[in-house]
Amino acid sequence: MDNEQLPFQPQPIAEHEKRLIETFDDLEKHQLEFLDEGGKRIIELTTLLLGLLIGIATLGDEFPPAFLKNNVLGRVFTLAALVLYLGAMFMAMLCVQPRRYERHNYNLTFMREELDRIMAYKMRALWWAGALFCLASASLVLLFACVF
Q1: Does residue 18 lie within any of the structural domains?
Q2: In terms of residue numbers, what domain contains 71?
Q3: 32, 38, 46, 50: most buried by Cβ count inside 10 Å?
Q4: Prediction pTM value
Q5: Handedness of CA 90, 126, 136, 46 (dihedral sign)
Q6: For residues 107 and 114, what is the distance between their CA atoms, to the nearest angstrom?
Q7: Residues 138, 84: Cα–Cα separation, whole Å
Q8: Number of domains observed in the structure of the chain
């Protein structure tokens, strides 16, 4: 088939289009690393803020502290922040947790499907970890607002 019978004429790829393709190739290549690093970062931040929350709640020689004794709203926000931070940590740990994957050495279609499943699983876990982390942080801010 010669070029006169083609319904369109292929155009050479422009330099800026090549850079765009390379950028997306690079994003795809590093996606798993990015998701794992995001999960690790949420675990670190959650650990820090959980330590802060527990430190504040156990401050002093009596438990619960005086500023939470007769403050029902403060207790609700404290409990909500605690549960949400633990949920965020759990979801982030699911994101970075090593697990067995099927490897199809000679079937690229199955390899692509497995990679897509891996990335979808990690993205979903990281999304939930981030959402729970934001809700927990909002709850912590509301706790500080109602206590101080």
Answers
A1: no
A2: 23-147
A3: 46
A4: 0.80
A5: positive
A6: 11
A7: 10
A8: 1
